Amino acid sequence: MSVLATLAGAGVPSVSIPLWANLLAVGIGSLQGALFAAQFRDRRLDLLGVAIIGIATGFGGGVLRDLLLNEVPRALLSNWYLPVATASALIGMLLQRIFHRIQPLITALDALTIGLFGAIGTTAALAAGLPAIPAVFVGALSAVGGSILRDLLLSVPIALMQVGSLYAVAALVGAISLVLLVAVGVPAIWAAVVCVALTFVVRVLAVLFHWTLPEQRPLRRGTRGTPGTAA
Description:
- By secondary structure, this protein is mostly helical.
- The chain has one domain (about 15-210).
- It is built from 9 helices and no strands.
- Helix 2 (about 20-40) runs parallel beside helix 4 (about 80-95).
- The chain is globular.
- It starts with a helix and ends in a 22-residue tail after the last helix.
């Protein structure tokens, strides 16, 4: 079977996502969400509010993924998810002063969260029989879903819609790499590792070197009819 046929949705091998991988993604996401929420001194969030933001960040991507795949959210199928998310959020909340002194750690946690949720979302979509392009979409949305929910709850501009450091692009790069590797016969576990690594590298390099996508600008008509000339 050719690679093109595989990418069209035929012959994609079944993949399984271990519980520890889901818990790791949820835990890191909750920790990062609580750290993000704790920095808003003007919002007057109490301890419970910060914890809820952290838990929502950890659960958001996975819940969106499972809803798109028409499955019961995995966070509701085990007794482990909520305690892990709560404990991680509390750690991030209580130790946020220590964590914020090492800002690169927050960036690294953020990048790792995107990569983990992207890999889990993409492999889950492939296991459900979705073709390549929808699988990439599910993976990318799973990667950024927790951050979207976090920003909505905090009433701040959604991170991936701003001129920023390739937040969603990193997730797309990772998800596409995973689908391509699985299509050519690479074991799903190694494809997922590459997905996490690529997502992490793209996100971190974008932050370090301030890589951004072009900002949206309205098209303007030239003064003498020349396209692209500023009015």
